[in-house]
Amino acid sequence: MKDEYLAHRGRKAVFIAAVLPVLCLIAVVSVASGCVSISPADVFRSLAGCLVPGSGGVTSQADLIVWQLRLPRVAMGLMAGLALGGSGAVMQVVLRNPLADPYMLGIASAAGFGASLALIFGIGVLGGPYLVIGNAFLFALIASGLIMVLSGGGSATPESMVLTGLALLFFFQALTTIVQYFGDSDAVKAAVFWSVGNLGKADWGKLGVLFPLVCVGLVLLFWRSRDLNIMNAGDEAAMSLGVPVVFTRGFSMVVSSLLVAGVVSFTGTIGFVGLVAPHLVRLAIGSDTRFLVPASALVGAILLIASDTLARSVLAPVILPVGAVTAFLGVPLLIFLILKDQGGRV
């Protein structure tokens, strides 16, 4: 039995190891794709030319496209996908709801309301280039805090948290609609465009802010993955084994909410990544949270980078909002998973 367990655990580790080169390949293809095609070899030469002095490089135009336009965009997609995939997996475990994700809980709609206030009325906690980002982050945090407080604080149950999140979802959507109703057409258009997600405004300065948040957040979630694993058996069973259920649930939700708030404030609302990635991983390796969280993060990054590549390539030179592409990819995939769970009708 021990040998079978170790073999089963080894297959999960092999899956994660196999996902990493796929992620790297998709990232290279994404950097090479766009209105101006750049060969993968030129991408590597451009990277080497800037990272390794004296190694050559390519034309200045190619270097500009790679380093200033596409590489920050792909890096932002990587950070956002890791955060959304990992936090979505944790939320589904904590809330014991396979349809839970960062957007069903109203966090994204609250961020959208904050962004609409900034874009339409110029109201914000920060000024300059961080006006929209600061507002979106603040209201996402407010929504997260309201979920914890209104659902019962330390005694919050998964059911009460889900219901509170749904109530906040519709509440902030209604507020956003009212704000947009009184805005002029250009400002409303900008708010709507922000709400469907976009990686086009990524730059190295923003990545420098987001990178430590995502890294620390994922490490903290993985730190509690063993306790989350035990909580799959139920709160009473987990408490009998010494797991601090209340602390673990609250801590995991707070960290996941911070991750989502940070990502949404820079990219806008990108749906389905945090919902679909954990389901795909469960089909492949099961529900062991120690492997589910990192694997979901990696698969989320793959989904988001691939979606952004399609968004830039399908109707080039027109760039589609990446949130719309993830929805197009996520809806049929989610329907497939639902039908499969209902008895293998597909």
Counting DSSP H or I runs of 4 or more residues, the number of helices is 14
Distance N to C terminus? 33 Å
Unreliably modeled segments? none
Instruction: Kindly name the structural category.
Output: mainly alpha
Q: For the residues shown, what is the average pLDDT?
A: 83
Order of helices and strands: HHHHHHHHHHHHHH
Helix content: over 70%
CATH domain class:
Mainly Alpha
Radius of gyration: 21 Å
| CATH second-level architecture | Orthogonal Bundle
Report the CATH topology name.
ABC transporter involved in vitamin B12 uptake, BtuC
The main sheet comes to: none
Strand portion: under 5%
* Total individual domains: 1
CATH H level, superfamily name: ABC transporter involved in vitamin B12 uptake, BtuC
Q: How many runs of DSSP E, i.e. beta strands?
A: 0
Broad shape: globular
What does this structure look like?
It is found in: Cell membrane. By secondary structure, the chain is mostly helical. The chain has a single domain (2-341), classed as ABC transporter involved in vitamin B12 uptake, BtuC, CATH 1.10.3470. It has helices spanning 2-32, 40-51, 60-94, 107-121, 131-150, 158-181, 185-195, 204-223, 225-231, 235-240, 245-267, 273-285, 289-313, 322-341.
Task: Give a quick rundown of the structure.
This protein has 14 helices and no strands. With 346 residues, it is mainly alpha-helical.
Keywords:
mainly alpha; ABC transporter involved in vitamin B12 uptake, BtuC; 76% helix
Task: Set down the secondary structure blueprint.
Blueprint: H1 2-32, H2 40-51, H3 60-94, H4 107-121, H5 131-150, H6 158-181, H7 185-195, H8 204-223, H9 225-231, H10 235-240, H11 245-267, H12 273-285, H13 289-313, H14 322-341
Helix pairs in contact: 1-2, 1-3, 1-13, 2-3, 3-8, 3-11, 3-12, 3-13, 4-5, 4-6, 4-7, 4-11, 5-6, 5-11, 8-11, 12-13, 12-14, 13-14
